[in-house]
């Protein structure tokens, strides 16, 4: 999976560098030109800035959007992975047995390893609790749903320094983004 944080960091650094060059050029234009000549020069500077930033923003945004779409696809394929009929029968038989020990339950659960639906079915059928519970797919998808508007805010920011919008700074910090992506990767890797 694409390292989303690296893509965002690289974009922010390139944007901030181009913005610094733009500000310096505007300062030079202010000192050098007046009136219409100044307005024309400022227009050229803004156009040059946009010519550099827009393709970079588009490329970076598309890369991040693709990574999130790929994450959703991976999650959906994990969740829709079929389980064998033999395993379903085993879970059903053990569920009907009286006084099933924790060791017996965990043995059946171990056979479900790598299959999200089988794991969920086994946990529910055998009434396992605590550390046995895998993360719920809806919670992981909800985290991705929250990440997308944060990333859109990031790409719409006009600066990436201390004056950047809070959400852009949060995304750029990396902890927020990395925690969501690591949650997705852990989920997918657990149930491949």
Description:
The radius of gyration is 26 Å and the shape is rod-shaped. The chain is 78% helix and 0% strand. The chain has 8 helices and no strands. It is mainly α and 192 residues long. The chain has helices at residues 4-32, 35-79, 85-96, 102-111, 116-125, 137-156, 166-173, 175-190.
Shape: rod-shaped
Query: Could you name the ranges where pLDDT drops below 50 across 5 or more consecutive residues?
Result: none
Number of helices: 8
Mean pLDDT: 89
* N-C termini distance: 14 Å
Evaluate the radius of gyration.
26 Å
Please estimate the helix content: over 70%
Q: Pairing-aware structural class of the strands and helices?
A: mainly alpha
Q: Determine the strand fraction and express it as a percent band.
A: under 5%
The quaternary organization reads as: single chain
Number of strands: 0
Main beta sheet strand tally, sense and closure: none
Helix-strand pattern, N to C?
HHHHHHHH
Layout of SSEs?
Blueprint lengths: L3 H29 L2 H45 L5 H12 L5 H10 L4 H10 L11 H20 L9 H8 L1 H16 L2
Helix pairs in contact: 1-2, 2-6, 2-8, 3-4, 3-5, 6-7, 6-8
In short:
The chain is an all-alpha fold and 192 residues long. Helices cover 78% and strands 0% of the residues.
Task: Spell out the key features of this protein.
192 residues, 8 helices, mainly alpha
